[in-house]
Design a protein that fits this description.
- By secondary structure, the protein is an alpha+beta fold.
- It has one domain: Jelly Rolls (Sandwich), CATH 2.60.120.
- About 30% of the residues lie in helices and about 15% in strands.
- The strands form 3 sheets. The protein has a 7-stranded antiparallel beta sheet with strand order 1-10-7-12-4-3-2.
- The two termini are about 10 Å apart.
- This is Phytanoyl-CoA dioxygenase (PhyH).
Length: about 260
């Protein structure tokens, strides 16, 4: 049930033929985008991950040139949960290949261990500054994942820590509370974030999420999530690709940390 999102932090939408048609067209366009020279910097982890931020050329309604409209099913689900759909940014196209994870450029051994052992678990929008601090620079409204290729649990699925959104909301809210709301985007929450992640690893269920073209995944913006290592099996896909929409909230960090309806 989509309404479970406010309890678990995520929900999977059922198969929709129109969503599959959108995904098929997006994958055709996305494969061209992956190999465009301007997107060379998005290849990382020694070629096992195309990060692909803003790599899809969709319009503000989610439509790609020559392709179908973003289907009504996901839009209705988002609107029921979070209100009117805002203008959409060019979608991220995250593509993972056999052998993932290798070290990212500049990643030390501790970082690679975290990527391997903790699925590089992270909170979207909380970015690392040059001083090493963590600040909410991109307060997303929600996260919508649209699988573009078939996916197996052995092929680097999305990983979610169920219920982590409320643990993070409480911890970060307490860190922001002593400060003026208009300064919350400037607050370094690195220490509380790292400590809260430890609590989440100890108390929340780690859930791999496998979805296919035609399905969609909706995540609460405060849900801790990551990508599992590529284990493979008897039959391996050439890659696993998902398009992600993560629009920015107009209300900034105060809206980002606020309680949603549901």
């Amino acid at each position: 049930m989509v309404t479970d999102l406010f309890e678990k932090g995520w929900a999977k939408l059922p198969f929709d033929a129109k969503v599959k048609a959108w995904a098929e067209h997006a994958w055709e366009a996305g494969q061209q985008s992956m190999h465009a020279p301007e997107h060379d910097p998005w290849w990382d982890c020694e070629g096992t991950w195309f990060i692909g931020v803003d790599a899809l050329n969709n319009d503000a309604a989610g439509k790609l040139p020559g392709g179908p409209d973003l289907p009504a099913g996901p839009k209705r689900a988002i609107e029921a949960l979070f209100g009117a759909l805002p203008d959409l940014h060019p979608a991220q196209m995250s593509v993972v290949f056999p052998g993932y994870p290798k070290a990212r450029r500049g990643e030390n051994e501790a970082g690679l261990r975290y990527r391997r052992n903790r699925d590089a678990a992270h909170l979207d929008g909380l970015l690392r500054g040059e001083d090493g601090g963590r600040r909410v620079e991109e307060p997303h409204a929600w996260i919508l994942g649209m699988p573009l290729t078939t996916n197996a649990f052995s092929e680097s699925p999305l990983v979610i820590w169920e219920g982590s959104h409320e643990i993070l909301r409480k911890a970060l809210g307490e860190a922001f509370a002593p400060h003026l709301p208009e300064t919350w985007h400037e607050i370094d929450v690195r220490a509380v974030y790292q400590e809260t992640r430890k609590t989440i690893f100890e108390t929340c269920n780690r859930v791999p999420v496998c979805a296919q073209p035609g399905e969609a995944i909706v995540m609460h913006r405060l849900t801790l999530h990551g990508v599992a290592p590529w284990i493979g099996g008897d039959v391996e896909s050439p890659c696993r690709a998902v398009a992600y929409f993560r629009p920015i909230l107009a209300g900034g960090v105060p809206s980002w940390i606020a309680q949603d309806g549901g």
